[in-house]
Specification:
It is built from 14 helices and two strands. The chain has about 325 residues and is mainly alpha-helical. It has two domains: about 150 residues, Peroxidase, domain 1, CATH 1.10.520.10; about 140 residues, Peroxidase, domain 2 (Orthogonal Bundle). It binds protoporphyrin IX containing FE.
Length: about 325
């Protein structure tokens, strides 16, 4: 009898938890700051435009930052918090070691604070800035419902536990996304974010130099591409960088899926999208596509979903005064 009760209690708890999360996400609205900060979207866009127009790589930086924020304690800007003597924050975890672009968010927050003091959360600023940065480099746009609050907790270990590493296989990736209420389709669509940006060689050295411990490379990689990668990443140079989508890493397009079928997906997690029937079908449907419009629409839809993961709303959380520091109160 007792053995039946426990699984039932657990599943009831899970259902209630999911319902509460969905209810919170429903509280987000596009007009949330309409009265309290009417020029918010313009202030954000202007600052983001200045940075991204000058350095297009900031678009990739912000897109990854938003993803890393949402997958750890939800989209609550916990990724922006700096460590203190008593706490090692997400920002100092291994998966976040190469995050960049914090200065853009700080600049946007400073501009917003000037006009609308203590009104707009850093979580909303990160969500808006990401959308704007992607549009500045010619990517899709999407609506950003607002009203997220900032979290007061940021723990390095949680980043390690929630962010999928580049060596995950399809089953592991699907599970990591399902844990955030994202579907298999969301996984293959959002992985398309790797159409922009760079990776450090450290993220691929095992794959190209010592895949199974005998000085070999991952057979899922095109051998000619391995030679190119080895040239770009000679052994001691783990801090060198390579483009995620070669020759096209600054333009948000559908070319990422072409690289996958050519066995040039940079990470095992990219290549893994060929190993599941649903993700494989999606990849193939975009190969040699002359138009990016269906990918853009899918990407926009999935970004809206990602931006709602486990958000804090209403009286939960706070409006951080400085994005990198939890308020004192
Ligand atoms: C599916 C699981 C994913 C894995 C395993 C993964 C892993 C990685 C890794 C290892 C890097 C390179 C880090 C470095 O060495 O500097 C990277 C970069 C990047 N990722 Fe992902 N990622 C995933 C999903 C996503 C998603 C969902 C997005 C956004 C929607 C995204 C956007 C990016 C971007 C834009 C970059 C380049 C960042 C830059 O240029 O600074 N990734 N990713």
């Amino acid at each position: 009898m007792a053995t039946n009760v426990i699984p039932k209690l657990v599943s009831t708890f899970v259902v209630v938890f999911i319902l509460v999360q969905q209810a919170n996400a429903q509280n987000l609205t596009e007009g949330y700051y309409k009265k309290t900060c009417p020029s918010l979207e313009k202030i954000v866009y202007d600052v983001v435009y200045r940075y991204v127009h000058h350095v297009p790589g900031f678009a990739a930086a912000l897109l990854r930052m938003h993803f890393h924020d949402c997958f750890v304690r939800g989209c609550d800007a916990s990724v922006l918090i700096k460590s203190t003597p008593n706490n090692t924050a997400e920002r100092d975890s291994i998966p976040n070691a190469s995050l960049r672009g914090f200065e853009v968010i700080d600049a946007v927050k400073a501009a917003v604070e000037k006009k609308c003091r203590r009104t707009v959360s850093c979580a909303d600023i990160l969500a808006l800035s990401t959308r704007d940065a992607v549009t500045v480099i010619g990517g899709p746009s999407w609506p950003v419902p607002l009203g997220r609050k900032d979290g007061r907790i940021s723990v390095a270990l949680e980043a390690l536990l929630n962010l999928p590493p580049p060596f995950f296989n399809a089953t592991q990736l699907i599970a990591a996304f399902a844990a955030k209420n994202l579907t298999v389709k969301d996984l293959v669509v959002l992985s398309g974010g790797h159409t922009i940006g760079i990776s450090h060689c450290s993220s691929i050295t095992t794959r190209i130099y010592n895949f199974t411990g005998i000085g070999d490379f991952d057979p899922a990689l095109d051998p000619a591409y391995v030679r190119t990668l080895k040239r770009l990443c000679p052994p001691p140079k783990v801090n060198n960088t390579v483009e995620m989508d070669p020759k096209s890493s600054k333009s948000f397009d559908v070319n990422y899926y072409n690289t996958l079928v050519q066995n040039k997906g940079l990470f095992q997690s990219d290549a893994a999208l060929l190993n599941n029937s649903e993700t494989n079908a999606y990849v193939r449907s975009h190969v040699a596509s002359s138009s990016a419009s269906s990918f853009f629409k899918d990407f926009a839809d999935s970004m809206v979903k990602m931006g709602k993961i486990e958000v804090l709303t209403g009286s939960a959380g706070e409006i951080r005064l400085k994005c990198s520091v939890i308020n004192k109160n």
